[in-house]
What does this fold into?
Amino acid sequence: MPQFTYREAIRHALAEELARDKNVVVMGEEVAQFNGAYKVTEGLLAKFGPSRVVDTPISEAGFIGMGIGASMLGVRPVMELMFWSFYSVAFDQILNNAANVRYMSGGQINCPIVIRGPANGGTNVGATHSHTPENVLANHPGVKVVVPSTAYDAKGLLKSAIRDNDPVFFLENTMLYGEKGEIPEAEYLIPLGKADVKREGTDLTIVTYGRCVLHSLAAAAILEKEHDVSVEVVDLRSIRPLDIDTVLKSVAKTHRVLIVEEQKPFASVGSQLAYMIQREAFDELDGPIHRLATIDAPAIYSPPVETEQLPNPQRVLKAALAAVA
Amino acid sequence: MSKKPTATAEKKSAPTAPAHDPALAAINARLSRDEKIELHRKMVRIRRFEERSLRAYQAKKIGGFLHLYIGQEAVAVGCCSLMGKHDHVITAYRDHGHAMAVGMDTKPLMAELYGKATGCSKGKGGSMHYFDPTRNYWGGHGIVGGQIPLGVGLAYGVKYQGNKGAAMAFMGDGAVNQGAVHEAYNLASLWQLPVIFVIENNGYSMGTSQERSSAGALAKRAEGYDMAWGVCDGHDVYEVRATMDHFLRLAREESKPAVVEIRTYRYRGHSVADPDNTYRSKQEIEEYRRTKDPIQVFQNRLVAERVLDEALIEKIDTEARAEADAAADFSEASPYPTPDDIQKDVYWEADNPSERKSEGRLFFD
Amino acid sequence: MANIIEMPKLSDTMTVGTLIKWLKKEGDAVKAGDMLAEVETDKATMELESFFDGTLLKIFAAAGSQVALGAALCAIGKPGEKVEAPAATPAPTAAAPATAAPAPVAVAPAAPVAAPTPVAAPVPTAGERIKISPLAKKLAAEKKIDPARVTGSGPGGRIVRADILAAEKNPPAAKAGGTFSGGALAPKGPVQEERLVPVSTMRGVIAKRMLESTTQIPYVYLDIEMDAAPLLALREQLNTGLEKEGVKLSVNDFILKASAEALRRVPAVNCSWEGTHIRHHGAAHVAFAVAMEDGLITPVIRDAHLKSIFQISTEAKSLGKKAKEKKLVPAEFTGGTFCVSNLGMMGIPKFTAIINPPNAAILAIGTTVTKPVVKNGQIVVGQTLTVTLSCDHRVFDGAVGARYLGALKTLLESPALLLV
It folds into this structure.
């Protein structure tokens, strides 16, 4: 199977959907002429022209709101946020308008918009550019939140997101853009809300998503080799809808849980998972649910220290050993 | 503040406003008798509807806020009377007038206020969130200025889909200082989108007068974005129509955006629950009522044009009151939504399970 | 109104007591002064005495249960009177099955011994709750394993799935008793039945106190070897002479007497560390360690500095017997200012003992050893005794300890001094 980067996978998904549906429009800062701040949209302008691939001014509230309005009329805008961190300046548009308009209209209006872009720390860009708002977004009924960890998942999920009739927020990761993975030549879709067991194991379930999947897999290899601990890694892929059943199934097998997330700990995605696991698998738990999150402070700049602030394989390893104690 | 009830002086500073008597403008001159009566009837119906809703509010039938449009009826009626197939409307929370102006029925509108399942948004939106996409009416939005980028999006959609139409994005005079509005101005002008930003300037953003909240002339800010702009008297439905027709044509034919400030006045508090005596005098309100009331102004005009007579006026008014009462009765008799309805209309997929593609849980407890 | 009898404070460090056995049953007539029940404290088994006349109306704490200090044990009142366990007091734990030991003891944190009235600990009292994971709890129920019999291997002693599975593989005594019948005659088989035994209240207290002692006290150890021949000679002489009187003095009696006398000569050893102060005790209350089946206890000879060797001997015998029967009352095993531990009778030549706070020292007595010694320049057969003083260096220094041992040596090598 051919190998592609995560970046290329997203680009291919965009290209395929642009070609499939003329209602699809790609918009964002630097997405067209500049070929994308992270080159995700490279070549799309040349292929699809300026009416389908549109550069916007630096004006997130304006252009995201515009995309939402256009989506109400049936356009399917795929809006790029150069960083998801910039969602804060478009918060009212994203979480008042996109999230609520269907409800407040009694189901008369849909908002089939996709907002995508990277949401991660680890690149030494400081606190303002390192937000991971999946928990904040998923807190709003009416929206869907997807955080792919691999090239394969990114492509299949983005294509599904673009075809979805609800607003979908697609959170990528600049640290993953260069990661390669196998992608079939034939077209495929991955449904939102379907977790993927990235590694099977018997002693501990690590529930995770996004780049932390890679950290967890690295730690799982060491745990197997050096500590005789067999780890199952469940990649949620989608935060909302949430495939809790796959998580519960794994917990019933291993009885121990570690949640790994690049999230500030307070009221994170992991907080929700921990609640659900204890509520629905209480009698399967052989120990408290553990969680490894970002160390609770704004993202530090200092490059070597930021690595320690975020989950990393060593921190996952340590947390996993505590979880199986 | 003592706002002089004369609007003609400002018109001089509006470079693109029509210069002659608006009644003579082609868009008005070609109105049939019935069309004129219909304009009048709409304004009366809106007023009687809102007066009835105020009674219901005071009888504790209605929760939350109730932002009444009374005094501003000529704006929505005038603007929306110009709508073609591909024209769209979006507004803020003072949205009852626009809803009726685009043709929504009073029964579901009143029922929405009552929080009933028969409401236009099934009791899920309330007073501030009326919608009717079948009539190109996109709400009904609660956050000041937040709807304006959506209005640009509607214009974008019209243009992208290759239709000749325009979006009218209404806002109050308080919204002009919101950042999202300026971002929307920029995008509209930059991309030459067919949108008209309609500032319904009733003089006060809640309890703060225009002088105390906004620097400079409101519509003139369009110049900074290289957009056309205009100002007109919102007490005169003819003038509203004449002015808006001009800009709508520019938008539909040339895909040009514009900012239009329509001078108007509200008689009631910001919301009916808000006190009205801290920022303006009773006399000021009475002066407007007496000299500038849009229904009275237009009625006088139509009487002079021999379109209306006493009997017809009386008949229209009686029917409007009866219609409002019927809407209240309908609302009273309607059922509330049930707790089972709370989680409906959240996700398209959840409401269309047979077509659902995603898996996993959409709702949490 | 009925009188509610609560778990009394029967020792200084007690926060919880185990109701061993009820001596009366519901409906029995009770007079003030009657013994109602036996209660095991962290130190000893004691009798619970009634202060009321009436009928034992209701028993709230079943035999085998552990009960927090102040929690209701029973009610005494007029016959037929209705009673309910007072809600305000901590409810007693559910009784463990009659044959089972109480749940694994979280030994209630012993209040500092120096504090005269320890504060009631707010922590969950022993046996109130077994720490067990939800899964292990479910498994235990399925496999009909009593979690109270299982010791947890998880963090904080939590019983986890593996513990239940292990317990299933190695069932406790009651189930497997018959299979371990070899006894002393069986040359093969396990050294003992593999089982988990809950830590008893006494074991728990010992563990805690000894750990505190070794982790909080800076120790100095001083040995001294002495000539035991004069002591053994005098003892033999006295025992022979007093045989008809039924007196039999032990070496330990002499040592107890000598250690008290030595405290008079070097009183700096008869002190206690109290943080900002050092308490100098006027009396030498000398405790001595008595081994019991499941631990040890240190009864106290009060005012040993004022008592004759015969008095000390008689008292030590009586206390030792009561200790083995777990009949000591708190006054008999609290308040010591110095302690003697003797493993001489078990052939140990020399050892170091752990100080029992708030004492500042403990004296460890070895056995008397027959060995060549140099006397007047000649190698002769001698009898020696080595004693080791464990000292709290916060209270006094090595030289003080050395002076104390010197005084002790003088007394024991000239034992007649102890008779005057």
In short: The mean pLDDT of chain A is 97. The two ends of chain A are 41 Å apart (CA to CA). Chain A touches chain C through eight residues (CB under 8 Å).
